[in-house]
Recover the amino acids of this structure.
């Protein structure tokens, strides 16, 4: 689901063609989306918004840990996000930071399975400087081997800090267990052995930059006190000479899962946890399965649901319970997760979750609850579109999934088309034991469900 999950038109075919997508009746995104594709394949998106003197500048690179197909190279997309702040001949790391301060801008970035996103918000009157700074590092990044090793140490420290948490350990084990071949098997930060070896991968880092930091992988999104004419002119001026690449990774296909798998973390001092993780569908604006499971989660496991009332409020056997399916370009996981008060209640809680799943397999969802869930989803999304940064962020999410920010309206149109029978069909298709990986944190040495 687009809005809940992240709590939790194809690219133009005619070179240089410009389009503007406005709001049609019933569309959830209320602003005109202007798109231009440069001859080198760079997509440029502009959304004028009434924010006097303020603009958000995003670059979405459709490269994440999904593209890390070579053995021993997991975590490189995230690592390279760090390297992108190391400077160029024209702007050192310190000079880049000072230039941002000089135009009243702040910059950051983040990486996930399917993308890396660079973003800044600042003075719209200094938009040309934003373009200059970003074009320089995207085309002319330069760092020493010593700088590379320093950053590799920082990433190792980040891994050590994050994965000290049993919850993060289970997250890592769950995906490692659920997937055999696909690169969703490793988390964004990478496998530990690969992180440890990163200081020795300087030459590969140069190859990674050469492969992926190319215009055909990238989309610029500018939102705020701007015009399409100004943005397009600056994009052509600063990014027009960016050379197109020719590398296309071959993402390994995931074989069909045929039996339940188990991921377990032993820890007697951490709250017991249980998650049922089913192989689910990829994000789609055409097929209903993912949208149907999103709406199933919103109905069956919301804070208004009977199981929440029973387990959290009345019986107080769990601290929380929820369901979600992360939006991914390839088939990922649909998860139902809960934190328990006592490990001995794990089997009972699992049985209650399974009872809800069976209920939705045996009868269609309630039409009234379904419509309420759709309305909440649209309202929540629309209410968050209140600043250039939030608008650019919303568009960036659908951009890295489909390549086209205008697909946001098609997504919500798809949600509207989902009926009770679609939910029943999706639950029957995906929420089955053959597609299941059970994740647990408990005092026992092994999973309490593994025979």
């Amino acid at each position: 689901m687009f809005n809940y999950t992240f709590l939790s038109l194809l690219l133009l075919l005619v070179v240089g063609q410009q389009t503007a997508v406005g709001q049609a009746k019933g569309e959830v995104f209320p602003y005109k989306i202007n798109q231009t594709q440069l001859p080198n394949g760079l997509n440029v998106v502009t959304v004028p918004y009434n924010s006097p003197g303020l603009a958000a500048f995003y670059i979405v690179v459709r490269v994440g840990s999904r593209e890390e197909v070579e053995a021993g190279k997991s975590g490189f997309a995230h690592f390279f996000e760090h390297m992108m702040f190391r400077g160029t001949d024209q702007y050192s790391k310190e000079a880049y930071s000072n230039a941002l301060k000089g135009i009243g801008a702040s910059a950051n970035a983040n990486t996930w399975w399917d993308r890396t996103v660079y973003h800044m918000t600042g003075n719209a009157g200094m938009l040309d400087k934003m373009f200059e700074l970003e074009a320089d590092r995207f085309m002319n990044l330069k760092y020493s081997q010593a700088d590379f090793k320093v950053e590799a140490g920082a990433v190792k420290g980040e891994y050590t800090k994050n994965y000290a948490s049993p919850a993060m350990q289970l997250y890592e084990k769950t995906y490692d267990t659920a997937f055999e071949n696909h690169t969703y098997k490793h988390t964004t930060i990478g496998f530990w052995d690969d992180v440890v070896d990163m200081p020795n991968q300087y030459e590969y880092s140069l190859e990674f930059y050469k492969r992926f930091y190319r215009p055909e992988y990238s989309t610029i999104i500018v939102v705020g006190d701007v015009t399409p004419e100004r943005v397009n002119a600056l994009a052509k001026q600063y990014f027009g000479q960016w050379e197109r690449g020719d590398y296309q990774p071959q993402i390994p296909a995931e074989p069909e899962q045929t039996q339940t798998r188990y991921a377990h973390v032993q820890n007697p001092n951490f709250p017991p946890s249980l998650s049922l993780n089913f192989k689910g569908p990829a994000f789609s604006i055409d097929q209903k399965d993912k949208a149907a499971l999103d709406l199933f989660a919103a109905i069956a496991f919301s804070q208004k649901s009977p199981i929440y009332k029973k387990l959290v409020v009345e019986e107080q056997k769990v601290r929380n319970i929820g369901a979600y399916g992360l939006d991914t370009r390839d088939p990922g996981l649909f998860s139902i997760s809960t934190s328990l008060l006592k490990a001995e209640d794990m089997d009972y809680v699992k049985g209650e979750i399974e009872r809800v799943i069976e209920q939705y397999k045996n009868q269609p969802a309630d039409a009234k609850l379904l419509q309420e869930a759709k309305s909440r989803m649209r309202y929540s999304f629309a209410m968050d579109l209140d600043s250039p940064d939030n608008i650019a962020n919303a568009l960036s999410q659908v951009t890295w999934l489909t390549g086209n920010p205008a697909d946001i309206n098609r997504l919500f149109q798809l949600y509207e088309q989902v009926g009770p029978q679609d939910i029943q069909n999706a639950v029957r298709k995906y929420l089955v034991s053959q597609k299941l990986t059970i994740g647990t944190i408990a005092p026992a040495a092994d999973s309490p469900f593994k025979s």
About this structure: The domain at 12-239 is CATH 3.30.830.10 (Cytochrome Bc1 Complex; Chain A, domain 1). The CA atoms of residues 211 and 246 lie 8 Å apart. Residues 145-162 form the longest helix (18 residues). Confidence is low (pLDDT under 50) at residues 1-22.
